[in-house]
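Exercise: predict the fold of this chain.
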Amino acid sequence: MNTNQTDASTFDLFKRGFRNGIPIGLGYLAVSFSLGIAASNVGINGTQSFFASILCLASAGEYAGFTLIGAGASYLEMAVMTFVVNARYMLMSCSMSQRMSPDTSVIHRTCMAYSITDELFALAIARPGYLRPEYSYGATLASAPLWAIGTTLGCIAGNIMPANLASAFSVALFGMFIAVIVPPARTNRVIAYLIAICFALSAAAHYLPSLSSISSGTKTIVLTVAISAIAAIVHPQAQREDNAE
């Protein structure tokens, strides 16, 4: 295994991670501003939005939480929905654990797991050799605070802006989710079909009299689990053997 990262000094790795995390942090600052607008729309203040973002580095998970708060969902619904939406991070954690040195302590592994996001995972997993905690800490320190600050600024702005202007800004968050689903939908017909099915069933669950009385949180959980489970059964991913290092 390549030992370039393993042989680097602790400070050099931290500095390199911090430098590589700055562009990600700037992107987080812009995206989380829209998330803060969504938080303000359900009555969350700036301080609450800051701690929500610094403790949960997940745009989809936070947005689901804010939506459920606005819908008056129960704590159980919120916990289950957050678990379902953020379940992919468990797979990322398993992948990263295979790249760590056996000598990495449980404390370091736990701290590294806290900062696993889509972007930081891609940044870390692309590194050669063993994954070192110092690199992850540097990247996290450069990006996570900007995520929380952006959410806070958006929340404060949403609380002082006119309602119609705040509503217009909150639409930007949907643009982020569209940017997430469109590229894979263009290259994978199955994903495109599933997205269309999700839209149709979500609309049906909202307007059908027999389903409209069910809380938004429960409907979201049921649809997410059911559609993903059926898709996994009907269209299983082909197993691929990776080349040995």
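Check your answer against the key: The radius of gyration is 20 Å.
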